[in-house]
Specification:
Blueprint (H helix, E strand, L loop, with lengths): L6 H11 L4 E5 L4 E3 H17 L7 E5 L4 H13 L2 E5 L5 H11 L1 E6 L1 H4 L12 E4 L5 E4 L2 H8 L1 H8 L19 E6 L9 E5 H15 L8 E4 L6 H13 L3 E4 L6 H11 L4 E3 L1 H16 L2 H7 L4 H16 L7 E3 L6 H9 L4 E3 L1 E2 L6 E4 L12 E2 L3 E6 L8 E7 L5 E2 L3 H7 E2 L2 E10 L5 E6 L4 E2 L5 E2 L1 H8 L5 E9 L2 E8 L1 H6 L4 H16 L8 E6 L23
Parallel strand pairs: 1-11, 3-4, 3-5, 5-6, 10-11, 12-13, 13-14, 27-28
Antiparallel strand pairs: 1-2, 6-7, 8-9, 9-20, 15-16, 16-17, 18-19, 19-22, 21-22, 22-23, 24-25, 26-27
Helix pairs in contact: 2-3, 2-6, 2-7, 8-9
Amino acid sequence: MYLPESFNQAVTDSIKNNWNLNALSDYGELTFQYKDVARVIEKLHIIYDAAGIKKGDKIAICGRNQSRWGIAFFSILTYGAVAVPILHDFHPEQIHQIVNHSEAKILFVGQQIWGKIDIAQMPGLEAVIGNDDYEILSSKNEKIADTRSNLNKLFGEKYPDSFRPEHIKYHIDEPDELAIINYTSGTTSNSKGVMIPYRAIWSNTEFAYEVLHKELKPGHTVLSMLPMAHMYGMAFEFIFEFTRGVHVNFLTKVPSPAILMKALADIKPRIIICVPLIIEKIVRKAVLPKIQGKKMQIMMKTPVVGDIIKKKICDGMRQALGGNFYEAIIGGAAINQEIEALLKDIKFNYTVGYGATECAPILAYEDWTKFKMGSCGKAAPRMTIKIDSPDPENVPGEILAKGMNVMLGYFKNPEATAETLVDGWYHTGDLGTIDKEGNIFIKGRSKNMLLGANGQNIYPEEIEDKLNSLPFVQECVVIQKGEKMYGLVYPDMDAVEKQNISQDGLKAIMEENRKTLNTQIPAYEQLAGIRIMDKEFEKTPKRSIKRFLYKDAEV
């Protein structure tokens, strides 16, 4: 098994070994081969030298997914600087705050972000560089602009006899050296700067190689559709694939169903990395309507005939996702139990992983052929997971993790670090159980847990999972007011409009949903009412609802 000495060594080896293969593409636009990536990295290093960037200095990147985002990222780490990826969905004030808090000296920025931010609000920056063409948008030092203007000449002088693989000499990283400061997406609170060391990104990359090297090889293709500034997409749709000689295709546009389906059909990715929303939409729109009739339900339970129908459904789903993938790895949020039961029944090749930014991101995973439904896999290699509970199999407790993937702490936030890292154990804030085989079952966020009138622990995510399965519910949040529970529901407006349902009719449907739900859950969890929301819930870039915004909502 290939085991590089360090992360940057893995990057070096992949570039040299895959010199003439396609590396990064903006889907439908331009493509960089591995040798092209190496050349651009060298040119960016020349600019960093001109800007006076030293080892350990911070360089931020903010923009939509694209090849040049990825090249900028690798140029930072291979130089020995620290990458600060910033989600382009953040508000301008948040971008200003992160750039300042991280002490970034250079900011790579997409054109759509550049028009919104105020350079005067980020006085520590030496330069702002455009993501689209690496033009200098702003600089304090004339030498930076002059270097960019004469970059090809300077590059030619440095490598007069052409640039070759043997010229590559990247920063030699140490295991506990800081590589990335990744600001969390703020599902439950304000963002914190997670300090990710090289050992964590190396371990995550090695993990992916260990579990997928037989299925994902040089020359294979993947589609990157998750935000690259979020560790889930960065680690498993980009970093691992690049170190493996895989061709990464970036979906540079908003992934509407039509754009996404065409890209999947064209690229035929070898693995699918996604959040539950993508799989659930395909199932709800294309599968459930075809199998919900009584006749079809009976046929699906009939021996032989049922197997044929299920195989046809599974084949259809596979084709919708490109038809060439080994497995779909679902992460970032919990998958709906009803949808998961159907996926398991039709033998769809999916698995559910578990991660956190603080672990860069992997905590648990299992191959789809061994995956246990309802779980999120087993502890990943080089990680130990335990449940803080007197009876970890039956009584939920906080999930604790220790190992190579765990962060160094939160940047300039010793209080939050001390709360989260205790005696080497990362306190996830998630509640779960673990069975005898080591399969982990998440029950919810400890911050989300509610307390019933008689002291019962209530996990709103479990109630929401059932409510999401009822008619015309697209997404929901369960909140507590005094001793009573209420549901906030954003309806499936496409279905509502298609069936021409009035507002009063929709209210009646939701009341029936409430009554149905209350027959499925204990008395202390039952909903006293449902409020229909007039717009979608605000979400993080990984599509998790920002629950803390709705805990005081009127009902």
